[in-house]
Amino acid sequence: MSNAVPPFIVAIPARYGSTRLPAKPLREIGGVPMVVRVAQRALQAGARQVVVAVDDQRIADALAGQEGVQICMTRNDHASGSDRLAECAAHYGWADDSIVVNLQGDEPFAPAAGIRAVAKALAGDDAPMATLATPIIDAEELFDPNVVKLVRTANGRALYFSRAPLPWARDAFAMNRDALPSGSPFLRHIGIYAYRAGFLARYARLSRTPLEQTESLEQLRVLEHGHAIAVRLTPEPFPPGIDTEADLDRAEQWLRTHH
After folding, report:
1. Are strands 187-196 and 129-135 parallel, antiparallel or unpaired?
2. Ramachandran region of residue 30, left (φ > 0), alpha (ψ -120 to 50) or beta?
3. 213-246: pLDDT as tens digits
4. What is the pLDDT of residues 44-102, one digit of tens each?
5. Neighbours of 112 (CB within 10 A)
6. Could you give the CA distance from residue 215 to residue 212 in angstroms, rounded to a whole number?
7. Distance of alpha carbon 12 from alpha carbon 81, whole angstroms
8. Mode of pairing for the β-strands spanning 9-14 and 49-54
9. Before 237, cis peptide (omega within 30)?
């Protein structure tokens, strides 16, 4: 497999009405709106096109003047970020084989190497979709329902994603749930995806599925309909995404210590 990074588009779904953190894309970290930080990360990764799929003029206004960033106004009733990006792909008429990286609008510190890695993972696999993961190192993270866990096959395909602890270390957890047993493949899902533009259009036509709705995880729609997702380990850590006020406070602290 070539080490070259294929040409890719980064599309960022940015929804105004987040339930847990209202007006999330506009919340500032170090004085800069979150959505602007995410778009800057996409540009740093070397995307050939960076598009922010918005559903509210206020987000578009926050991005005005960001060189190299395009804004696509989308409907406000999409079930998921991937559905929003499918509207975007149709709007721009991206070729079916174009690699589209879905960088979530709440990943302001996504490393450029990770964005490139997910595009490369898709190019090097015949799965229609790819994503990233990173090892979980403490029990608190494993038991946190806001942290999405995943298990995968020996050849790196996703078996399942869940907000529940996964896999369940039966014997170890019967004794103690405060520490993780060594040797178990605990993985945190990083919410970044790559897909071909043609599959994005297919995804939006797939009916929503029971597990997707139960766990509130859009990637389960792909698995439930029988499609494969390639999973690779991230080459660099992704600081956790921003979902709550507490996450926002942590992001401010992270920025102070890393810049």
Report:
1. antiparallel
2. left
3. 999 999 999 999 999 999 999 999 988 788 889 9
4. 999 999 999 999 999 999 999 899 999 999 988 888 888 899 999 999 999 999 999 99
5. 15
6. 6
7. 8
8. parallel
9. no
Greatest extent of the chain over all pairs of C-alpha atoms, in Å: 57
Is the pLDDT at 20 greater than 90? The verdict is no
CA angle 18, 21, 22 (to 5 degrees): 65
**What pLDDT was estimated at residue 51?**
97
Contact 248, 27 (CB under 8 A): yes
- Determine the Cα–Cα distance for residues 253 and 251; give it in Å rounded to an integer: 5
Q: Please give the angle made by the CA atoms of 193, 158 and 11, to the nearest 5 degrees.
A: 5
Angle between helices 34-44 and 112-123 (to 10 degrees): 60
**Distance between CA atoms of 259 and 34, rounded to whole angstroms?**
16
